[in-house]
Each structure stands twice: as C-alpha cells, then as structure tokens.
Specification:
Structural class: alpha/beta
CATH architecture of the largest domain: 3-Layer(aba) Sandwich
Strand content: 15-25%
Distance between the termini: 36 Å
Number of helices: 10
CATH class of the largest domain: Alpha Beta
Largest sheet: 6 strands, mixed
Shape: elongated
Order of helices and strands: EHEEEHEHEHHEEHEEHEHEHHE
Helix content: 25-40%
Number of domains: 2
C-alpha cells in the first residue's frame, strides 16, 4: 500500500515536473483518498476511463491529458462537472502528466517512439520533438512501420524524396513543428495529427508528412510510466486502452 502524496512526490521528482512550461497544472489535479492500493493509467481523462477505473476499484488514475487546462473555462458545468463529480463521488485521485511525459528520456512518448522506429544519432527538434536517422526506407515502408509501431493507420502526404533517411518526430498535436523539420532539411516529419496548412507546406518544401494518430502516439509514455511505478513501488497498475481514432 502507498500513500497518495508519496506517489505524487515520486512522479514529480522522476518526471522533473516544472522544468518545462505546460498548459495546465501538472501532477495532482483531483485529490482522492489517502491510501493507494490500485492505480489505473490511460491517455486521456474521460468518463469512459473513469468508469473502467471504478470497476477495478482503483484508488488513483494517471493520465497524459487531464481535466484542467489554462485556456478552458473554470465554470463547473457540462462534461467537466460530470467528470469532476464522478471522481469526487468515488474518492479517486486524478494525476496528469503532459509535456514532461512527452520529453522524458526513459518513459517519454518521444523517446519510446524513437527507439521503436530505430532512430539513431537522436537529437532535439525544437523544445519537445526529436530528430534522427533511420535505416533507409521508402514512403510505403515507413508508413507500414508506423502502422506496426502505433497500431493505427497513419494519414500521410508523400512529397519527399524516394528514400527516407532523416526524420523528425513529435507525438500528439505537433503538426506546427513541420516547419522545424523543414528548416533542418529532414526527409520526413511524423506527429499525431494534421492541420489544414500542412499539405501545402509539405508539398512546397518537398517533405513527407505522417500523422500517426494523436491518441495512438501517446499510449507509449503513460503505459511505460505505470510500469515504472509498479516496478519501483510494487503497487498494482493497469493500463486501460480507450480507443480513439483521432
């Protein structure tokens, strides 16, 4: 058995919370009961995830996307009210780790994806992303590799070279970082989702673009974080997959 505050402290230290500016509170977002016997992890806070956690009698839920964001309304109504009420009624804590989980060198979404994609000579791309080299692949081969790694059919624009050697990667909603990949002269850029200007920018710059799924690219980190916590503390941790095509 663990104490809630000990889990919060361990994760704050391990993920170096506070080193990178985020878009909302990181760590504890909703306080539940003091003692923790069972933890559920998932990508995004939702009633669907909460209900699965309640079925498993979880004391704590860890997510990548929480329920508190700086630019969202603070009025407690609608879906926000429903989510908050569900957690409070069941006395379950909610912890959220966003950008600090993206960038972590061991359990980070980007580091784990880089390893799975066989990237080497890895270096930062902007503040969050990574760039590196891969074994030479053509467009279709890289598309198939992404499908294998993320179990999600990637959306793609094929405007780059016939052979792909140098790629940029950033999980989630980083289509705006395509500009960084272009500046670096990369052959392809991979992220989670796509924006309206992306097609023309990729076409005019002569670079491949892949959107491998916002949800799909961010399963890796939160699952690995739960596994780390289970190894370090012995607490029972289960990842719950709530499929999302976006």
């Amino acid at each position: 058995m663990l104490l809630r505050d000990d889990v919060v402290t361990y994760l704050a230290d391990y993920l170096r919370v506070g080193e990178i500016k985020d878009y909302g509170p990181v760590g504890l977002q909703v306080e539940g009961r003091t003692q923790v016997r069972r933890i559920v992890t998932g990508v995004s806070a939702s009633l669907a995830l909460f209900e699965e956690a309640f079925k498993r009698e979880a004391d704590m839920i860890l997510v990548h996307h929480g329920i508190l964001w700086d630019k969202e309304s603070r009025v407690v109504q609608g879906p926000f009210k429903q989510r908050l009420k569900a957690l409070l009624d069941h006395d379950v804590s909610l912890l959220a780790y966003h950008l600090c989980l993206d960038v972590h060198e061991e359990v980070g979404n980007n580091a784990l994806a880089a390893k799975a994609l066989g990237m080497h000579n890895v270096a930062p791309l902007g503040e969050i992303g990574l760039k590196g080299s891969i074994e030479e692949l053509d467009f279709a081969e890289l598309q198939q590799l992404l499908l294998y790694v993320f179990d999600h059919e990637p959306f793609a624009f094929s405007f780059g070279p016939a052979k792909i050697r140098h790629i940029g990667y950033c999980s989630g909603g980083a289509a705006g970082d395509l500009a960084l990949a272009i500046e670096e002269g990369l052959d392809a850029f991979i992220t989670g989702d796509v924006r309206e200007p992306t097609m023309h920018l990729a076409q005019e710059a002569g670079i491949h673009f892949f959107a491998a799924g916002h949800y799909a690219t961010e399963r890796l980190g939160i699952r690995a974080l739960g596994e780390n916590l289970m190894r370090k503390t012995g607490v029972e941790v289960e990842f719950i997959d709530i499929p999302n095509p976006a």
